[in-house]
Design goal:
Layout lengths: L18 H17 L6 E2 L4 E2 L5 E9 L7 E8 L4 E5 L5 E2 L8 H11 L1
Antiparallel strand pairs: 1-2, 3-4, 4-5, 5-6
Length: about 110
């Protein structure tokens, strides 16, 4: 958050030789961010946001094509440390995990099913 209260996105890009390497990097970074998340409530002047409602990072894997990627999946890391998997970009669909399955495993399962 900036001094004036505004939020600025920081975009970092990386390239990987294969999908497996990209998913491993996404999981490592996601776990790192989730473990360092604080669970403070965000109190805007007009609404109060609970920690599970605030996304602190969105990590995405897209490719291999540059302009119209055939793979577009990712995770949202929430302020309470929870992680939610999704697929798509404009029409994002939450990937529901199966019993005992992490968000990262759910992404891999969805990609294996395609």
């Amino acid at each position: 958050m900036e001094a004036d209260g505004s939020v600025r996105a920081r975009v970092k890009r990386a390239s990987f030789a294969d999908l497996s390497g990209a998913l491993e990097a996404l999981e490592a970074r996601g776990r790192e961010l989730a473990s360092s998340a604080d669970d403070a409530v965000v109190d805007a002047k007009f609404k109060r946001f609970e920690p599970q409602e605030v996304v602190i990072a969105r990590l995405e894997v897209a490719g291999p094509e540059r302009f119209v990627p055939s793979v577009r999946v990712g995770v949202d890391v929430h302020r309470d440390g929870s992680v939610e998997a999704y697929r798509g970009r404009v029409r994002r669909q939450v990937v529901e995990g199966q019993r005992g399955e992490s968000a990262y495993a759910a992404l891999r399962r969805v990609l294996d099913e395609r």
